[in-house]
């Protein structure tokens, strides 16, 4: 962010620097810049030196020679002859110190004639050698180029195309007798704050003074002395005018209540990329992905990086930030941390030549070609369309095309905003009306925008292209129109962006979790603390925002923002950005006066653009301060002589020290000028008294980012090793925090969820956490990578592993290649010998993923594989096996890579092991459309052998996503494997038989179904007969299942951490779980059973929709609602004869007959009673007339489910309690005859009325109600 204020400096500029060719040391080739020696000598780069800098040093900003030298001329020296173009180029740069504080540099690079004879003859010699070499290449059949190219990829991430011969011949002409040689030189200002426009003018005027035929009014020293020692920084909210060589220069600084200082042209970024691309890049930056900007122009890299980070207000980019990455630091591209870096392209190579170590979560921005490559699964920014629309309106009112204008060249960067030209400039397609002109019709965004415009009724035709008249005469004198236009456009766009965050986080304070401890202990436990109630905040948000917001809340920038909120108690203490943001949030609250929790997705446009603009116009119209004019210095006669076309060697004696007494230093300068605290870089006004808080904020900033910034210096191997060691430590720490966060998220939920066994949190939150785990794994796998195929480092490693295993597999080996022949297979309890456990095989899991046609990319495959391994609880084990192939790891990774640091690797695998404590369904729930093989086994009762069974069984399996339809099961094996589209978590199995043959009675213990990819095994207990004339005469049953937990051999107990069931509920203590003996419960226990069943359903509906488990289980499963009501009706039921079973359904049928006859008799009951009776009889008739062979208990279950769905159960209980049939069939002590108990039962059942119960299709198949 350009809030930067790096020092106690109150001077406008800290240093003036000159870089260029050191004639003493001659021409040194710059190997680090990575240029190819096949380039002609004029196109090679040579080392540049810092020739001079004034003053020598200032205490608050020590001079960093390496960094300044690298960034002033990142490509080193370049040479030209008189035929080449030699336009001066301006660029800015930023130096970030390790503590995060920033200094800005502004550099103007121009060409001077080379006067040194030695240099000219050295260049001639290089040319002779080069031409001879080229001649050889042209006339030898095996080109040396090929060898050169093979050697390159390992050593450096960027490849350069070998220039075509024709191109070489065009340049291979430097003739000392005929040509004039020019070399680049650079003048530069190093400043504490980024006044880019002012610095550019200062440098351009200095350069003009050297090239113009007339010498400047005063020696150059006077002007440089003036800018270094006599021009102060403008105070907050004020403007300042000072003199350049030829004209006045104005700069102005926003006040403490405005957005922080930003002085780069945002419109340049929109011109280069277009609104749609800018917004995608902005989203990537907010989610802290790795961002690589790519351009031939340094200034473009800087403009885009600074603009994107400025638009993030109130958040700040917390990670590595190097808008211009010097060629010597290219190895930094494999940093396994989020970064924003700018890479210089030489204009000849295309993107395919660029070999980047990690691309899995990389956003690659090719600025010059208007092109952006996004990582997969990037969520959409909330209200994206309306947002684009609002930004476009602002841009178009200034005559900037929202589509971007690819032709906007560097020459235009001087910002010609001439409104008249905009309308008449037909070349760029800018015809009359704004919409028809600026927007390319084909673009889908724009088509969507126009649709939106029609809906919202905004007419774009009305947008005026701004008139020059807006700039009054008085202001025009002080500051040129272009610059004012730039400031106006900047502030308007920034306000629109800032307004999005103020709207999205208008009530963020409500969710900040204030620490209960004192600051000190809060600080030491910072890693473990949650500082923001994410779940509650997200539950308030409109659904479409969630994919973006849930990821954004996990970022470092959001955490730091909330930390700084916690550390500031009152307004005085607040950081500048926080204070401005909070003020805006308060204002919105006042305007909207709405309850903080009521969220709408209504798009609210920015309202405070005008006042922000006014503030700037006022400052520019009336200049607050004027600095001293440049004056003659005390120089010896003859000093400061001037030679046209050459930037002079300045007199260091007059420039090295400032004035001894300084007028404006004596004036009581505001406190913020005098303070020297390092914190200034983050906020222009921190009223800090205690150093404690400084330390807190600084350290809070560094949390989680073990390395903030690469040191820009000529790197020795030891420095690189040190940096990489920091990366390794950082990755390990991040892994520890992520695993902990994911476990707390699940364990915490499970602990409070005392409902039925369904515990996995699914939905947005889980997806976010798993996606960020996948990103972390990709970053770990690409650290120190040497060999990679495809975009995903992890998948590449897996493929190499697969290859090596297949090569080593012996042809006559046991089983298919790549299977691990270990004895350990997973054993599943309950299924017992019913199903041999799945073999654990890393390779098999890879094959499953490769067979999924829906996943097209390597990154997608790696993520799917991670999700599958998480769901199977094998992630740590698989990765351990992958890394156990040490030879392979050595081949693929450099020595310093994380994966070759043994201790850290062990700890990392140990952290991942903790995921086995909880159940994830992150594969099943995400890949909902893929085909999955399932294996079904029917287990008949051991007591009564089913060997004589003659009928043909069938099953139909249902899951949360879909169901299979009827599958015939072979009678002899009783198992079948079939493939169908992902059913999701399995819920019910309908099973039955066709009643054929002599012996069609069958006692089934359970059905076991396994998902052959994830290995999840579900057990559906039955324990009942199927057959006519036995049990309740049912030929089919609906079984409700639960997931079985794998246990190891030696531990046959049901061992589960955390327990998936409720702590054994009351009912379990009363009931002996043997299906044959009917347990006898007393009325209290029965009431409790009903209460627990209803409670489970109520809890189910109180959970967020994405986290609900299976409702079927709560209705029909063990101790569900059906079971509980069965207990009610069985209590005190008279059994007429000893051996004849009487079923509740018989009672209900008798009641139905009674009611139907009562209706005919037109009994004197009221209207209400008749309606209830009609409903009851209708349901009974429908269930009885179904074509399905479900027995009496199955019918009872169906009736209860339908009654629950239609909210009729409590009516029916009341009807039955009053029915004379009931009094005949029950003993006097029966629960159903006890008035008060029946009334409380009715009250409990009434609680179901507020819920909208939808039944699974399998429960009500064949009933047309």
Distance between the termini: 64 Å
Which geometry do the CA atoms define? elongated
Strand content: 5-15%
What does the radius of gyration come to?
A: 38 Å
Structure description:
It is a single chain. This protein is α+β, with helices and mostly antiparallel strands and 1265 residues long. 40% of the residues lie in helices and 12% in strands. The strands form six sheets. Strands 1, 2, 3, 4, 5 and 6 form a six-stranded antiparallel beta sheet that branches. It has a five-stranded mixed beta sheet with strand order 10-11-9-12-13, covered by helices on one side. The chain has a five-stranded antiparallel beta sheet with strand order 19-16-21-22-24, with no helix packed on it. Helix 38 (1144-1160) crosses helix 39. The chain is elongated and about 130 Å long. The two termini are 64 Å apart. The N terminus is likely disordered.
């Amino acid at each position: 962010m350009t809030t930067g204020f790096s020092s106690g400096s109150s001077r406008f500029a800290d240093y003036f620097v000159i870089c260029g060719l050191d004639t003493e040391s001659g021409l040194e080739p710059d190997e680090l810049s990575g240029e190819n020696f096949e380039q002609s000598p004029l196109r090679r780069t040579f080392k540049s030196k810092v020739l001079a800098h004034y003053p020598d040093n200032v205490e608050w900003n020590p001079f960093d020679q390496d960094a300044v030298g690298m960034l002033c001329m990142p490509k080193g020296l370049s040479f030209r002859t008189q035929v080449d173009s030699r336009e001066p180029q301006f660029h800015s740069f930023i130096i970030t110190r390790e503590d995060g504080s920033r200094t800005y540099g502004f550099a103007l690079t121009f060409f001077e004639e080379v006067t040194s004879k030695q240099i000219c003859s050295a260049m001639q010699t290089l040319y002779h050698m080069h031409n001879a070499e080229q001649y050889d290449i042209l006339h030898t059949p095996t080109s040396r180029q090929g060898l050169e190219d093979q050697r390159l990829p390992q050593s450096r991430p960027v490849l350069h195309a070998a220039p075509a011969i024709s191109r070489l011949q065009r340049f291979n002409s430097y003739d000392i007798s005929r040509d004039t040689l020019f070399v680049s030189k650079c003048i530069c200002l190093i400043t504490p704050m980024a006044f880019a426009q002012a610095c550019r003018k200062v440098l351009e005027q200095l350069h003009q003074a050297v090239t113009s035929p007339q010498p400047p009014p005063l020696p150059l020293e006077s002007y440089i002395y003036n800018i270094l020692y006599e021009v102060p920084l403008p105070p907050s909210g004020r403007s300042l005018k000072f003199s350049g060589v030829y004209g006045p220069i104005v700069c102005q600084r926003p006040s403490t209540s405005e957005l922080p200082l930003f002085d780069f042209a945002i419109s340049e970024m929109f011109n280069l990329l277009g609104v749609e691309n800018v917004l995608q890049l902005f989203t990537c930056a907010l989610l802290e992905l790795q961002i690589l900007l790519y351009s031939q122009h340094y200034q473009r890299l800087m403009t885009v990086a600074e603009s994107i980070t400025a638009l993030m207000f109130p958040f700040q980019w917390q990670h590595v930030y190097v808008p211009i990455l010097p060629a010597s630091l290219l190895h930094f591209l494999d940093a396994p941390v989020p970064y924003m870096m700018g890479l210089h392209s030489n204009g000849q190579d295309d993107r395919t030549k660029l070999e980047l170590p990690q691309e899995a979560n990389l956003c690659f921005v090719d600025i010059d070609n208007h092109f952006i490559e996004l990582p997969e699964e990037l969520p959409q920014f909330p209200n994206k369309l309306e947002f684009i629309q609002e930004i476009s309106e602002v841009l178009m009112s200034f005559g900037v095309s929202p589509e971007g204008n690819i032709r906007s060249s560097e020459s235009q960067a001087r910002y010609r905003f001439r409104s008249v030209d905009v309308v008449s400039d037909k070349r760029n397609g800018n015809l009359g009306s704004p919409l028809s002109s600026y927007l390319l019709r084909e673009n889908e965004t724009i088509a969507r925008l126009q649709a939106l415009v029609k809906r919202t009724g905004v007419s774009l035709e009305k947008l005026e292209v701004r008139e020059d008249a807006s700039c009054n005469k008085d202001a025009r004198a002080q500051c040129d129109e272009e610059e004012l236009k730039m400031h106006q456009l900047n502030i308007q766009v920034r306000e629109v962006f800032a307004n999005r965050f103020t709207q999205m986080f208008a009530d963020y304070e409500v969710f900040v979790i204030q620490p209960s401890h004192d600051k000190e202990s809060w600080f030491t436990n910072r890693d473990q603390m949650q500082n923001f109630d994410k779940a509650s905040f997200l539950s308030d948000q409109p659904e479409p925002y969630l994919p973006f917001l849930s990821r954004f809340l996990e970022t470092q920038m959001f955490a730091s923002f909330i930390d700084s909120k916690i550390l500031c108690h009152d307004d005085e203490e607040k950081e500048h950005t926080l204070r401005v943001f909070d003020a805006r949030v308060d204002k919105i609250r006042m305007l909207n006066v709405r309850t903080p929790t009521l969220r709408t997705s209504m798009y609210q446009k920015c309202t405070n653009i005008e006042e922000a603009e006014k503030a700037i116009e006022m400052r520019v119209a009336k200049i607050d301060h004027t600095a001293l004019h440049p004056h003659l210095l005390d120089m010896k006669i003859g000093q400061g002589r001037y030679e046209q076309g050459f930037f002079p060697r300045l007199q260091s004696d007059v420039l090295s020290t400032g004035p001894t007494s300084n007028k404006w230093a004596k004036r009581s300068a505001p406190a913020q000028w005098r303070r020297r605290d390092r914190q200034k870089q983050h906020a222009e006004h921190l009223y800090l008294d205690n150093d404690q808080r400084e330390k807190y904020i600084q350290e809070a900033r560094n949390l989680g980012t073990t390395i903030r910034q690469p040191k820009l210096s000529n790197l020795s191997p030891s420095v690189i090793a040190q940096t990489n060691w920091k990366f390794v430590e950082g990755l390990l720490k991040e892994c520890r925090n992520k695993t902990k966060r994911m476990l707390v998220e699940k364990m915490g939920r499970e602990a409070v969820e005392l409902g039925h066994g369904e515990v996995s949190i699914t939905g947005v939150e889980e997806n976010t956490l798993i996606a960020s785990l996948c990103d972390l794994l990709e970053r770990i796998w690409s650290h120190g990578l040497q060999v990679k195929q495809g975009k995903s480092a992890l998948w590449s490693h897996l493929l190499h592993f697969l290859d090596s295993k297949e090569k080593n597999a012996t042809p006559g080996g046991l089983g298919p290649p790549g299977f691990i022949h270990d004895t350990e297979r997973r054993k599943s309890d309950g299924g017992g010998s019913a199903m041999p456990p799945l073999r654990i095989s890393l390779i098999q899991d890879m094959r499953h993923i490769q067979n999924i046609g829906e996943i097209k990319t390597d990154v997608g495959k790696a993520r799917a594989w991670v999700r599958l391994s998480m769901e199977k609880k094998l992630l740590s084990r698989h990765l351990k096996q992958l890394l156990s192939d040490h030879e392979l790891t050595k081949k693929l990774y450099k020595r310093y890579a994380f994966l070759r640091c043994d201790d850290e690797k062990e700890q990392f695998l140990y952290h991942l092991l903790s995921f086995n404590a909880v159940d994830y369904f992150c594969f099943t729930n995400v890949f909902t459309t893929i085909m999955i093989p399932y294996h079904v086994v029917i287990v008949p009762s051991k007591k009564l052998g089913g060997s004589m069974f003659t009928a043909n069984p069938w099953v139909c399996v249902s899951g949360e996503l879909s169901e299979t339809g009827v599958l015939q099961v072979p009678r002899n094996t009783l198992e079948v494997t079939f493939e169908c589209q992902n059913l999701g978590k399995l819920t019910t199995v309908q099973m039955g038989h066709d009643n054929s043959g002599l012996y069609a009675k069958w006692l089934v213990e359970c059905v076991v179904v396994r998902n052959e990819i994830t290995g999840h095994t579900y057990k559906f207990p039955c324990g009942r007969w199927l057959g006519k004339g036995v049990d309740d005469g049912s030929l089919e049953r609906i079984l409700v299942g639960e997931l079985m937990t794998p246990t190891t051999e030696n531990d046959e107990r049901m061992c589960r951490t955390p327990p998936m069931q409720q702590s054994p509920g009351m009912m379990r203590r009363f009931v002996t779980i043997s299906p044959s003996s009917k347990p006898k419960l007393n009325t209290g226990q029965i009431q409790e059973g009903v209460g627990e069943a209803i409670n489970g359903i109520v809890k189910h509906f109180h959970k967020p929709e994405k986290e609900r488990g299976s409702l079927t289980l709560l209705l029909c499963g063990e101790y569900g609602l059906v079971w509980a009501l069965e207990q009610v009706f069985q209590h005190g039921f008279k059994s007429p004869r000893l051996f004849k079973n009487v079923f509740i359904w018989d009672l209900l049928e008798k009641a139905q007959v009674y009611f139907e006859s009562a209706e005919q008799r037109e009994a004197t009951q009221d209207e209400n009673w008749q309606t209830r009776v009609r409903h009851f009889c209708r349901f009974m008739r429908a269930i009885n007339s179904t074509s399905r062979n479900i027995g009496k208990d199955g019918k009872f279950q169906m009736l209860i489910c339908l009654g629950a769905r239609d909210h009729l159960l409590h009516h029916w209980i009341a009807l039955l309690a009053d029915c004379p049939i009931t009094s005949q069939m029950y003993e006097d002590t029966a629960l159903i005859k006890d008035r008060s108990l029946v009334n409380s039962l009715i009250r409990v059942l009434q609680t179901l009325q507020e819920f909208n119960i939808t039944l699974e299709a399998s429960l009500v198949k064949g009933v047309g109600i």
